[in-house]
Amino acid sequence: MREELLGIIEKNSKIGLKELAVLLGSSEQAVLDELEALEREGVICGYHTLIDWEKTSIEKVTALIEVRVTPQRGQGFDKIAERIYNYPEVRAVYLISGGYDLLVIIEEKTLREISNFVSDKLSTLDSVLSTATHFILKKYKDHGTVLAKKREDEREIIMP
Amino acid sequence: MTKELSKKVLNIKPSGIRKFFDLVSEMEDVISLGVGEPDFDTPWHIRDEGIYALEKGKTFYTSNSGLKALREEISNYIKRKQGVFYNPDSEIVVTVGGSEAIDIGLRALINDGDEVIIPQPSYVSYEPCAILANANPVIINLKAENEFRLKPDELLAAITDKTKVLILPYPNNPTGAVMEKDDLDKIARIIVEKDIYVMSDEIYSELSYNGQHVSIASLPSMKERTILINGFSKAYAMTGWRLGYACAPSNIIKQMTKIHQFAIMCAPTTSQYAAVEALKNGDKDVEVMKTSYNQRRRFLINAFKEMQLECFEPFGAFYVFPCIKEFNMSSEEFATRFLEEEKVAAVPGNAFGECGEGFLRISYAYSLDNLKEAMFRMKRFVERLRESNKKQ
Question: How high is the ipTM of this complex?
Answer without folding.
Answer: 0.77
